[in-house]
Write a structure and sequence with these properties.
The chain contains 17 helices and seven strands. The chain is of the alpha+beta class. It folds into three domains: 222 residues, no CATH class; 44 residues, no CATH class; 57 residues, Homeodomain-like (Arc Repressor Mutant, subunit A), CATH 1.10.10. A five-stranded mixed sheet has the order 3-4-7-5-6. A two-stranded antiparallel ribbon has the order 1-2. The longest helix is centred in the middle third of the chain and has 19 residues. It is globular. The two termini are 41 Å apart. The relative contact order is 0.12. One of its GO terms (molecular function) is DNA-binding transcription factor activity. This is AraC family transcriptional regulator. Keywords: DNA-binding, Transcription, Transcription regulation. InterPro entries: AraC-type_N, Homeodomain-like_sf, HTH_AraC, Tscrpt_reg_AraC-type_HTH.
């Protein structure tokens, strides 16, 4: 079990999530200008498939979708989940003694709310299976994917549970009933574990030892949490102590470009470059991919701040030549730095 790690920069999120939430709100008759305004985004921006957005932008969109639809389940279930129901549940959960009590109470709570969501908890061979089955509406004629709500609910249950016990709950597996989506690469950040698609049920799976962890959050902490929600669910979380996570921490704290080179990182980890490459591949990662993602996210956040020139941003993320940075940025996002800035 690992303690929390706070990254030194904000990661970014695929525009798919913003695009899908906004389209869903539009299909429900909501004012999408209102939904987008808080995030400082436009249709032109979120329609770019390679575009990345920040956690606070997605949080703003989701929050305004809730307000515009009056439904915490985004109009995707047969019955509305009224605004404030999660807060009501959370106020009860901080009174529970252990994580096991939390899950039992949450399952009872949603059964009392109606048939919007069936939450079932089962223990099998030293592991806990949390099954989440939303009662999706059959009346909708549009193409909003049901996975939009499934992904959000799995994310919330995992991250809020971890927050309650102040310890990251390492997942053994996440199972979903939908097919492997085009944005499945985002699952590495959402659910840092093995993901099973086209499963019979949606589920979070983790070791049963976590059930004994005490709930340590109080009313004051919860009030702050709810005031900031849903931002906490979209921020980068504390993951397994994998080699990918170790590499990312080294890259984040690097004081010079030299410290971001493969040989330097491998040396810091007391291993050869070949060994580090092999360990990353075993985790489904590559060193250059991790480094590029960090540079991309840092550049996007610097663009968002709006105080630096394109050349200065390039230097800040490790590019001494503007042309090289421009080519790399276009490869990451699909547009040049100047075009990206003009879209804002």
């Amino acid at each position: 079990m690992k303690t929390e790690h706070n990254p030194s920069y904000h990661h970014t999120i695929a525009s798919y999530f913003a695009r899908t939430h906004v389209k869903n709100a539009h299909n429900l008759g909501a004012d999408t200008r209102f939904v987008l305004a808080g995030a400082g985004l436009s249709y032109a921006v979120i329609e770019q498939e390679k575009r990345r957005i920040t956690p606070d932008q997605l949080a703003s969109i989701v929050k305004r979708c809730w307000l515009a639809t009056g439904d915490e389940f985004l109009g995707l279930t047969e019955q509305t989940m009224k605004l404030g129901m999660f807060a009501l549940l959370a106020e009860r959960l901080i009174q529970c003694k252990t994580l096991g009590d939390v899950l039992i109470y949450a399952a009872k709570f949603y059964r009392l709310c109606g048939d919007q969501l069936l939450l079932t908890i089962e223990k099998q061979g030293g592991r806990v299976f949390c099954y989440l089955e939303p009662n999706f509406t059959q009346k909708r004629k549009d193409t909003t994917p049901q996975s939009l709500l499934t992904e959000l609910l799995l994310l919330i249950f995992h991250r809020f549970s971890s927050w309650l016990v102040a310890e990251f709950i390492a997942l053994n597996k996440v199972a979903v009933t939908h097919t492997k989506p085009e944005h499945f690469q985002e699952y590495r950040l959402m659910f840092p574990c093995r993901c099973e698609f086209m499963s019979e049920k949606n589920a979070l799976v983790f070791d049963s030892e976590y059930l004994q962890l005490p709930v340590i959050r109080n009313k004051e902490a919860l009030d702050k949490y709810l005031k900031e929600s849903p931002l906490q669910w979209f921020k980068k979380q504390s993951y397994y102590d994998t080699y990918s996570a170790k590499v990312i921490r080294i890259l984040e704290s690097a004081k010079s470009d030299r410290e971001t080179q493969l040989d330097s990182v491998a040396s810091t980890l007391n291993m050869t470059e070949r060994t580090l490459r092999r360990k990353l591949v075993a985790e489904g990662s590559k060193f250059q991919q991790l480094k590029d993602n960090m540079r991309r996210d840092r550049a996007i956040n610097l663009f968002k701040q709006g105080s630096l020139t394109i050349a200065q941003i390039g230097l800040a993320v490790g590019f001494t030549e503007l042309a090289t940075f421009s080519r790399a940025f276009k490869q990451w996002t699909g547009v040049s730095p100047s075009t990206y800035r003009n879209y804002r």
